[in-house]
Amino acid sequence: MRFLRSTDLALRVLMRLAVAGDSTPTRRDVAEAVDVPCTHAAKVVAELRHMGLLTARRGRGGGPGLTKEGRTASVSAVVRAFEGEGDVVDCEGDVVDCEGTATSSPCPLNPACRLRGALRGAQEAFFASLDPVTVADIVSAPTGPLLLGISPRP
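The structure corresponding to this sequence follows.
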């Protein structure tokens, strides 16, 4: 399973803010710390704020901050929110045939396929393994101190 770029970024933003302590990094500081363009970070910060995991203060000295809910949020919940509840494979269409032509027909194995169910079970097991893991857990030592020492690339 491979995460969307936004999911990866959301987890990195949460981790960076979890180790910020009392300091309030700006959105630009966070973007630089996680090595992404500010516009990408802004979109993810807005979504995390909508989820109640971040606060945002405007003006001088402002920036995103982690809420109590953000610190105790399950990694699984964050991943599910950004990845969606869809299946690992698309059995309903958008297939490219041997000639490179995009088609929109469902998989012919769909009525009797056992693979889709097996993959769904694996996906649920993956999420279940992340359910007890919180943002606070993933920034405990040695990760937290390492995050504080990372400098943006020149």
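The chain is about 50% helix and 10% strand.
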